[in-house]
Amino acid sequence: MDKKEIKMEKAVSILKLLGDKTRLTIVALLSQTNECCVCEFVDLFNMTQPAISQHLRKLREAGIVTEKKKGQWVFYSLNKNQEAYALIHSLLEHVPNQKEKLNELEVKGSRMSCC
Fold it and tell me: Which of 20, 34, 91, 106 could be 111's S-S partner, Cβ–Cβ 3.0 to 4.6 Å?
């Protein structure tokens, strides 16, 4: 992966956002799947939809994630075109794999159940 230098302010902003456990976990999950629906995050984190939406809004405004609407549902994916993607990718190499959380959703029958 190309290591692209970014401005210090951008790096600080990204690291502050990802300093939150929920947001870092969301980004780690998205790095291991194509996309996730808001309802999946609500189920995974056992949080309210408005709380999850606030985390996703912050990530979207920073350009870390993108959103796509399908009917009444909103799906999020990791923005690999983000200028700080190399930094984010590097950081994710040092956090635990989140595949088990996605597997838990599938076992419960909650994976993409809102679609």
Answer: 106
